[in-house]
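Researcher: Next entry in the queue.
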Amino acid sequence: MSDADRHVDQYMNYLLIEKGLSDNTLEAYGSDLADYVRFLKEQGISRFSERDMTVILKYLIHLRERGLDRRSRARHLVTLRGFYRFLAQEKILPYNPVETIDLPKKGLKLPEVLTIEEVKALLDAPDVTTPKGMRDSAMIELMYAAGLRVSELVSIKVHDVNTEAGFVRVYGKGSKERVVPIGRYATEKLETYIKTVRPALLKNNVSSYLFVAWKGRPMTRQGFWKALKKYGRAAGIRKNIKPHSLRHSFASHLLEGGADLRSVQIMLGHADISTTQIYTHVTYSHLKNAHEKFHPR
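Model: Structure for this entry, 297 residues:
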């Protein structure tokens, strides 16, 4: 094993044990670093150095020539920043050569956001007279009420929901726990689903998961996505609805209603408030209307 491979292994163990990152995040970091090490070996480089700024810039150009967009190149650079920071912290290198390299301009794509009327139409689309329709309605309501990721939604266990107190316990990226309040609409739908619909879906099976499908198996992300697209068409919504659309709408509607950014950050489970700031663009029209209405000139 080369020095480069050994140091990558040390970093991955650090992310797993010290940082407790999720499997998906670890896989992404590992893939990016493996690609970078391959590039170094093609350049005849077998170890990392504090003088690697030039080769890192060359690598970013190489990624662009391979057709990677700005967002993907930025992600690779974030991976390298964390890795070289680790090497400096462990005194493997005297300093981090990546710190002064700027991220590529992302040209960030704004999230698809539903209007409040579109959310209402989507929530009205499932046939709540059937068990599956009532389950799907409860899932959509909860996702919008708590701003959940679809992976979080399908992973919720029955004991994670407290309808009496009106909150749901969620395990997000890196298995980080957060508690999110849910409103009256979601609470009422969940109570109905848990008491009458879920037992019908389970039949004689047992499951700890809140939302279940055939033979008591937990709902999958793919299954929910298909159902959501179907209800979007039924509601007459022309936007390209994805599970994340409800999360985006949750954040945007809270901010438009006057919620502070820090509270929204906590409810979304963002580690960095700069991630939450992507949603502030949505409030522009709201602010413009307020300015026109209330500003004296």
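Model: The mean pLDDT is 85.
Researcher: Noted, moving on.
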